[in-house]
Design goal:
This protein is mostly helical. It has 21 helices and two strands.
């Protein structure tokens, strides 16, 4: 009846998972009770859960990423504490639990923190920067988000029911084959990523279609903001790379469920095929994450330097070069696997070449700042911190691209330090810069600047204290994933790394305090103009937060930095030009399709993990019925009357005009 599921699946004998799952369950129950008792449930259902508005879906992606950041960081803290005390000792985490912790940490941080954060920023900002009303497929956008949330939910369910994978964040065979991982941990991993991967692919298709096909008048490719270019490159990589991940995990599932032997050497399969496939996805994935962050830094540095982005066309060329070259370097992840000197040399050279367009970007950002009137706001601090940190990570990456050096450093903590140098310094700092920069556009008030600066300084100092020692430990010969150790020289460096994680924790506490304080003091932090930073692109031309339709009259773009030109030369003309041109606007109607699909995906995923076949069938029927009902909807749009459009836009323009009159136009 319930397949492999039994009471033994609940780890009653392990206090840490039980305490953690109890805290999570208590928090979720408390929040749900508060929502119901306060009468907020109808509002949440109609305005958020069933919303197909790209802005609200972008906010929900970002919220999911921030919640999962807390979960993933808790795993990081446990690892750092375990290694700081596990000298001649087993520490407080038994080996099987420690293996789950580092596997869950990597999986959560890549798939459910970095990916949702970047997709959320792209979802929110790209249609606004393109001057359009929504993404190409609004309902599909909702489906993509809720499938991603389903994957995150399945990973968290494994904390309380069953176990998670003990294979690392990439499940290499033969360890992930049924013989060596007979439990459900690898199944949790595979089904969570299969379901969320479909959601990511849907988001990629949606954003590529939006950028290529739905732009406002005059918005040619070489007039798009740089964030739109990096979003295009990132989502092209998603479309090309994520099917590889889906196929690879499907083959692993066939090995585990039906006795296939794709990756079983002694039965005619090939373990190295898994390595090639997983990294043919895995290396483009790094650029899927970091390219949107590059776009964020381009917007932030240009805005807070009060200058156009230096070398715009070279930045576009560098972005697309990275997009292509990222598929040509995957084998550097396993130089030590015996591919041969010629193959290693080719991939080593390709890896060094991809550093060139990245270097072009860094110089362009520096030249943008040169001679500008720089405002050292918290988004700008994240950007400057990124450049310093990312350059260090890039240099260590070029070192690892040299095959002889990689033979020495492969699988050591040097590699862990390099990877975090790039992902935290690039992706996470970019996510925080974008979150702080576009927060007032999303909610109508700025985040508290002082607490934001404090968060930055604790984050960056904590980062260097946590990860620079790992470079040293790599040279001292410490390999990664060690649950305990006996080398006395390693311990001081591991204690320092644990202290660094503590500083990062304080930084996260400041970010939480920043959000709470900003909400409480939102009236004094209110942005009435829609343009709190004196921005340059079209998202700042509309109200904060923007209306459902984004723009009352779609803008007509005549050059780069569209909104900056509008502010400098044609504010009054643009205001008068809209008079008499307001028309009714057709907008997509909210739909529960995404949420319902996610519910059935959760049911099916859980049932497949535990081999509850009747539940699998029931979930499949429910999902199919949902699609049928959606396909036969009679009314999938509604009309915003011209009078309502006029009222909203005139109110926004009156506030804008008052601001310009009071402050003057900054050149």
């Amino acid at each position: 009846m319930f397949g492999k599921l039994s009471w033994a699946a609940i780890p009653i004998d392990q206090p840490l998972p039980m305490i953690a799952s109890g805290v999570v369950a208590f928090a979720i129950t408390g929040i749900l009770l508060w929502v119901v008792l306060k009468g907020h449930l109808p509002y949440l259902w109609h305005e958020w859960i069933t919303s197909v508005d790209h802005k609200r879906i972008g906010v929900m992606y970002t919220l999911l990423a921030m919640v999962m950041l807390l979960r993933g960081f808790s795993d990081a803290v446990m690892m750092r504490l375990q290694q700081s005390v596990a000298f001649h000792s087993q520490g407080f985490l038994p080996p099987e639990h420690y293996n789950q912790v580092f596997s869950a940490h990597g999986t959560i941080m890549i798939f459910f923190v970095a990916m949702p954060f970047m997709i959320g920023l792209m979802n929110f900002v790209v249609p606004l920067q393109l001057g359009v009303r929504d993404v190409a497929f609004p309902t599909l956008n909702s489906v993509g988000f809720w499938l991603t949330a389903t994957g995150a939910l399945l990973v968290n369910i494994s904390l309380m029911v069953g176990e998670f994978a003990r294979t690392g964040w990439l499940p290499y065979p033969p360890l992930s084959e049924l013989t060596y991982s007979p439990g459900v941990g690898v199944d949790y991993y595979c089904w969570a990523l299969q379901i969320s991967g479909v959601g990511t692919l849907v988001a990629g298709i949606n954003l590529v279609t939006t950028i290529l096909k739905i732009r406002t008048r005059g918005m040619g490719y070489l007039r798009m903001p740089m964030f739109c270019w990096t979003a295009l490159a990132s989502n092209l990589l998603i479309i090309a790379a994520f099917p590889i991940l889906t196929a690879t995990l499907a083959m692993l599932l066939l090995d585990r469920y039906l006795g296939f032997h794709f990756f079983t050497n002694d039965a005619g399969g090939n373990v190295m095929m898994f390595m090639n496939l997983i990294w043919a996805w895995g290396h483009p994935e790094v650029y899927i994450l970091v390219l949107p962050a590059f776009g964020v830094f381009s917007e932030v540095i240009s805005t807070f330097s009060s200058k156009p982005l230096f070398g715009y066309r070279s930045m576009v060329a560098a972005t697309m070069a990275i997009c292509i070259l990222s598929f040509m370097v995957w084998l550097h992840h396993f130089f030590t696997m015996g591919a041969g000197a010629d193959v290693n040399a080719i991939f080593g050279i390709a890896t060094m070449i991809i550093a060139v367009p990245t270097g072009v970007k860094v110089f362009n950002w520096l030249f943008t700042m040169y001679g500008g009137r720089i405002r050292f706001t918290s988004p700008m601090l994240w950007s400057i911190g990124f450049m310093i940190t990312f350059i260090i990570g890039g240099m260590t990456g070029v070192l690892l691209a040299v095959p002889p050096a990689d033979f020495l450093l492969h699988n050591s903590l040097f590699l862990v330090a390099h990877f975090h140098n790039v992902i935290i310094g690039g992706v996470l700092f970019g996510a925080f810069a974008g979150y702080t920069y576009w927060f007032p556009k999303a909610f109508g008030f700025r985040l508290h600047e002082g607490l934001g600066r404090a968060a930055f300084w604790f984050w960056i100092s904590g980062f260097y204290l946590a990860f620079m020692p790992l470079y040293v430990l790599g040279f001292l010969g410490m390999t990664r994933r060690m649950q305990h150790y006996d080398v006395a020289e390693w311990r001081p460096w591991l204690v320092a790394a644990a202290l660094g994680a503590g500083l990062i924790m304080i930084g996260i506490a400041f970010q939480i305090a920043q959000l709470v304080v900003s909400i409480r003091r939102r009236e004094e932090l209110r942005d009435v103009s829609g343009d709190p930073w004196d921005g340059r692109s079209l998202e700042w031309a509309t109200a904060s937060p923007p209306p459902a339709f984004n723009f009352a009259v779609l803008p007509d773009v005549t050059g780069e930095d569209a909104y900056w030109a509008l502010k400098q030369h044609a504010k009054d003309d643009a205001e008068e030009a809209n008079e008499g041109h307001y028309k009714p606007i057709e907008m997509p109607r909210n739909s529960p399709t995404g949420f319902v699909c996610a519910f059935f995906a959760t049911v099916m995923g859980f049932a497949l993990i535990w081999h509850i076949w009747w539940m699998v069938i029931a979930g499949a029927i429910g999902a199919f019925a949902t699609f049928v009902v959606f396909a036969w909807r009679d009314e999938d749009e509604y009309i915003v009357p011209a009078a309502e459009v006029t009222r909203i836009d005139r109110a926004h323009r009156a506030r804008q005009h008052a601001r310009f009159s009071a402050a003057g136009v900054r050149s």
